[in-house]
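The pair is listed for reference:
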Amino acid sequence: MTWSQSTSPSTPRGDTSAGELGADTDDADTSDAQNAPAAAGRDGSLVVRHGDVLALAGAADPLTAVTESASAGSRTDTQGAVERAEDATGFDAVYARRLPAELQSATAKLARRLDAACVFTTLGFEDPVVPVERRSHSGTTVYVWRGRRG
């Protein structure tokens, strides 16, 4: 399970240190996503965090728990990403690949507590158990849940 956070200043293109926090990563082309802030005339970057959605959803302060789990790594090259995360205003999205039905509600709960969108793919053979908007491109369907704290 991953979540994304917009930060400033920009992470240099090709810097994957924030994505190397002990979980699997995508080989997806993110060049468009990395260039989007610059194209829009603003500075920013994408910081990726990995964690246990059940533990984070139940944490008293999930934003602090996310930052603490990122800083627990022993690699010094993650320190800059942690410092950028601490300067950020919040999370834009919680993203999960191959999210099973039994974790979808907890993931949506975490996204709500972070006041973020929840974006995920399923295992492929089951429908989402939370209300979502479906977005498809080139045969891949991504589900978007947008709950807000009330």
User: Anything to note?
Assistant: Residues 6-39, 74-79 have pLDDT under 50 and may be disordered. Residues 101-113 form the longest helix (13 residues). The chain has five helices and six strands.
